[in-house]
Structure formats: C-alpha cells, structure tokens
Amino acid sequence: MSHSSEDLPTVPEARARLVGRAVTLLVTVAMFAMLAGCAKSVTPSAGTEPIPGISPDLIAAAQREGQVVLAGGGHTRTQLEQLKVNFEERFGVELSYVRADSGSTVNAVNSELASGRVNSDVVSLADPISMKKWDDEGILKPVAISNQDQIIDGLDAPDSAAVPFAVVPMGIMYNEAAIPGADVPVTWEQFVQPSDRLTISADPRASGSALAFYTAMVADHGQQWLRSFGATHPLVTDSTLGLNQLVLTGEADYGIPALESGVLTSAKEGEPLRIAYPDGPIPATTLIMSALAAAPHPAAAELLMRYSLSDEFQGILGDGGTRGVLRDLPPPPNAPQIDPARLRPVTVDELADAAQPVRAEFRQEVAE
To answer: What is the pTM assigned to this prediction?
Structure first.
C-alpha cells in the first residue's frame, strides 16, 4: 500500500483513525487469590529424564505444597500455556497464572504486599525498572540457577534476583503479500528516508517495548535519526499489540518495533506478516522473572524458576516461536539464525537514565 505525501495524515488525524487502541486489562488481588485457592491433583509425566539443578527433594517439597501462582506480566499467553502444560506434566504441581500487562501486574502484586496476604509466588515483567525497584527493596528472592552461566552475554544482570527467560529481537514488520522482502529497507538510515511507505509506531510513552527500542535507536543512531523518522509522518499508537492488525489490513506499510515472537505467532497462524532486521545491532528486549521473598509456596516457586531456565523448557519456548536466553539454542521455526553478538539488549540502567529524555524527544520529534 502506498501513499502520496498529500495522503499522509497529521498525528491528530492518525490518532483519530486509531480508535481501536488496546484496552488495559485490570488485574485485581481477588483474581490472584482465586487462583491461589484452586489447586488440584495433577499426575506427573512418567519416564522423564532428570533436569540438572532440580533435585528429587525439591520436587517432593513442591508437590507437598501442591501449587504455584505466577503473576505473568512478562509472559505472553502462549508462553504461559506452554509453561503450565509442561510444568504440570513434569512435576505434578499445579501452575495457576494471571496474564496481564506489566503495569497491572505491578499494581496487583504491590496490593498483595501491602495487604500482607501474598498469593503470588513468582512474578514476570517486561519492565526491568519496576523489577529492579522490587529487588532493591528486598521483595524478590534470589534462586540459584545451575546453568545461569549459559545465558547469552549481556542479557543477564548477575547481581539481580530477577533472571531473563526470553529475549525478543525487534525489527521492522511488513506484510509480505503487499511488500516483497527485497523492498524492505536494509539499514535504519534507509528506513527513515522520505518514501511513499507509511509506518505505524508504538509510543514509548505508553509501551515498555517501544521505550526499549527507541532508547537503543537514539543511543546508537542519534537524535537526528528520530528527527528524520518524525519527518516521515508516521502513525502512532499506544501499544505494540495493535501493529499486527494495522499492517495486516494495509492501514500502514511498516510497523515498529516489530516483536519477533508476535510476528512468528501470526505467521504460524497463516498471516503474511514478516519481520526484517536492518544491518547492524538488533535492538532487543528481555522478559524477566523472579520468585517473591514472601511466596506462600517457596519450594514450588524455586522449582518453577529453575524449570523456566532449563535446557528442556528453553527448547520448548523456541518451538513455540520465542527465543530462549541460553547460548547455542536453535532459532524458533521460520526465524533467522541471529549471531548473539548482534543482539543489542537495553539495560535497566540505560532505561532509568534515558526514559524521560527519550519520551520527551519522541513527543517533540514524532508525536507532535
């Protein structure tokens, strides 16, 4: 789909067109409490090989507790379903979860902590700043992971109780049915050159993934890159969740930041969405998780943490379209092999320092 310069909408016009913004999922303490009270007997799988770092004593202790509750702000629904099925079959311990955005998850867990009635055992977020705050306050509990030294360099913060369980490369989303892959820009500088292609971007003032993406882009390419991007008159939407549909329907030609796992899931369902990685470093965001110090099921929480980083489950994540964080894992089906050295994760310190200026620069250069 192409557009003449006269067809390009202003930001207010673009926002008026984007009436279908993502609706925030409200998570309440009652939902977590309900899940915590619904444990049931699950029969473990037979004939499975032992997993390094997971002892029979730990499994037995977790089975006595009977359940584990995961506040899943960093997991996708597909990842949670994979984890639930395989964890329950493996160990005979029920896994209950609530899937919500990171902000709602933080609010729900904080409410639990304030009430003194903690129901969650493990929490995952796509928000390293909130996780670091909890870590500094002693809310998180470190869990020894036997293969933590196998995590790709740069993805892990060794001094943190939180550990990454997935890495999500970010690139350019396009519709292969409308734009041949050979026509997609091969450098980020080429991407911001004037053209008749219309881009839609998630807003770093509302999206954590977009904040990580633009933090990396401004650091690596300078504010001039952001200014050049703004001059192309992109559409802006709050969340990365809306990019797929808008690119698929032709309302935009490109979407950034494209999250690899989301594009692969759409492609698996038969949609012609694809992701391109321009030359150079690839911005990436990590999904992180940690046990809570006040977990009501501490053994099950420890078991879930160790299983999530095991070679077994990291491979299962890959089969479902998500890149694990361990070295030497094959890429997900239909995903390119990426040299780990090209991955450009954004650290929590970078985000803490750059969040305010990057949001302000985006507002000035792109959204106004």
So the answer is: 0.82
